Amino acid sequence: LQAARWCASRSSPTTVEHVMGEFPDVNLAVLDGGPCTGGIESTIVKINSTTGKTVNLSLLRKGLLAPEQIENTLKKNNFIVEWSIAKGIQAPGQIQHHYMPSTPLVICQNETLNKSELLDQIEKRFSELPDVVEGIEMIKPVFPVENITELHLSKDPVMAARQLYSQLRKASEAENTQLILWKQNSDLDSPLWESILERLHKAASLIIK
């Protein structure tokens, strides 16, 4: 849990440059295999129990591999699959704000808001936000917010997964950026988008509905 909290407020590295940037004062050798092709972290499934051919599982973290794929593979091998809801924090990424970038990210799900209305909502919500949530220090902009970098991801979930952390880091490092804004479309309904959205929602300081 302590390690998970140390990693919070950090977007996962997907290139050698990202890894080196996390350890600026360490003489580190990193094997460069190129940018991550998957982009997001692995699916984590806990095996709670096995009784004969019956296996009880809990999904601890969504990833590139959908739970349905895991279940279908087990069923093809004559297993009976039961799912249970995991209790408490048992794996990396389960903390609410685990993936926060160094610049605050705001997700807007309301397509009817104009820029002025959105900025009013952001300032109001940030003023109500605690400084610490689940042991994680929240990252807030200095108001008034004048420099916003918009996050752009492909509509193809495979490409969006590859782009996610790289684009978050790039936006965080953009000169004079006070806040990153991502406008969430309403038609992101594939299992892979569920995994991407889980990370975006945990990276966000605010979600405007």
Reconstruct the topology from this structure.
Elements: H1 2-7, H2 16-22, E1 44-51, E2 54-61, H3 67-76, E3 80-83, E4 105-108, H4 115-128, E5 132-133, E6 136-137, E7 148-150, H5 157-173, E8 179-183, H6 191-203, E9 206-208
Parallel strand pairs: 2-3, 4-8, 4-9, 7-8
Antiparallel strand pairs: 1-2, 5-6
Helix pairs in contact: 5-6
Provide a compact summary of the structure.
The chain has 209 residues and is of the alpha/beta class. Helices cover 32% and strands 19% of the residues. The chain is globular and about 60 Å long.
Count of runs of 4 or more consecutive helical residues: 6
Task: Please identify the structural class as seen in this structure.
Answer: alpha/beta
Sheet having the most strands: 4 strands, parallel
Round the Cα radius of gyration to an integer and report it. Answer: 19 Å
Multimerization state: single chain
H/E element order? HHEEHEEHEEEHEHE
Low-confidence stretches: 1-9
Q: Give the distance, in angstroms, between the N- and C-terminal Cα atoms.
A: 30 Å
Tell me what portion of residues adopts beta-strand conformation: 15-25%
Mean pLDDT: 87
Number of strands: 9
Strand order of the largest sheet: 7-8-4-9
Identify the overall geometry.
globular
- The level of helicity is 25-40%
